Amino acid sequence: MGNTNSSAIQSCLESAVGARNLATSDSVAYQLAHVKPYNLDIPVAPAAVVYPSKAEEVAAVVKCAVDNNLKVQPRCGGHSYANYGIGGTDNAIVVDLKHFQQFSMDKTTWQATIGGGTLLGDVTKRLHENGNRAMAHGTCPQVGIGGHATIGGLGPSSRMWGAALDHVEEVEVVLANSTIVRASETQNSDVFWALKGAGASFGIITEFKVRTEAEPGETVLYSYTIDAGNAASKATAFKQWQALIADPDLSRKFATQFIMTELGVVITGTYFGPQDEFETLNISSRLPPKSESVIVLDDWLGVVSHWGEDIALELVGGVQSHFYAKSVAYTKDDLLSNDTIDTLFEYMDTVDKGTPVWFLIWDLEGGKTNDYAPDATAYGHRNALFYHQAYAVNLFGAVTEKNRNFLTGLNKVVTDGLGHDLGAYAGYVDPALGDDGPSRYWGDNLPRLQQVKKVVDPGNVFSNPQSVKVV
User: Fold this and answer.
1) Which candidate, 165, 90, 132, places its Cα nearest to that of 425?
2) Cut 0.90: pTM above it
3) Which of these three, 40, 74, 96, is where a domain ends?
4) Does 78 score more than 90 pLDDT?
């Protein structure tokens, strides 16, 4: 920060948060200790990383950025697939919320107050310790609630309880004009609507108030390793799994994933109920030959910990790496035909992936997440029955063209088979979608998001390469 402008912004930020809570390119180990890019394939150099401790300091940082014509992005867990939490491009001000760890529980309403910098592992632990409560969220404990509960927040319990953002009832948020406001369905309702699905485009949430649920009691964790050695047998396994999840009467207590890796096929998931109840679903008989593992737990922290041990999650969960990812949102009308499934699994068996470290996860959603109207929140996929998320990880350097072509080709087989494009989950951002990204992420809600953006952030202060923009 050697020129006049950088000196001005540094002075302003020091006044806002203090010198100890400010890091710049002049700081020791700036990239390693402060920038911490999650995807090593996308280099980003922020103008500064700040560590405020209260909402007033966040507001002062936002004013510094506006006065110096810089963009701002909040960071909680820092797990953006394209490093959007550090701006996505150079020269943003990163507001790291790690100090926002406040927590309280109203044991009359069972509404929890959670600091905007809390990681999901701590959310689980604090809810448990304050009345054996829980909420829907994903399986990676290092992910932060700040991004997770403002972009969707899908997890095994979402079929029962909805997405993480569906638990959010009120927030404290710093807006682009440096004001600190409360937002809910009754106050600043347009902002609240936008934050529940596209939060990073509209403000910095310093505090959440969320509804909670009683922890489930006995829970069944199952894993079926499928005996499928060639493309045809893998395709058969997927056909049977797809028929299972397409059952409109399938219990909302049942969560499931179909996972492919270099090692083969695993169908895994959770049933939020006792084992005898799970067995009445006859899940095992509806799937191909397999090796079965069924664990029954009545310890909720143990259940959540078990989710975090997933092999695919361990590859990208809390580890910085070079990787590329793509996603697709399927509705109940987007079930793959037998021919398309055969083509897809033949492609998977024969394509040169460029890496042995890849995985493809189909993840059942639906249930409670589908109960909300498409425009009830900014979240763009209320009609999604299931998603796929595909990853290619390069352990030895930059992602290659082969890695990218592998995933692009995989998605093309799906969309060609269905005859139309599909949405993408904003939690798995894909920079290759370019300007088409926002419409894929938010669908028909994008025009309203743009209208709200024009009112509350006309200068695009909260901005990354695929954020909601004023048009």
Assistant:
1) 165
2) yes
3) 96
4) yes
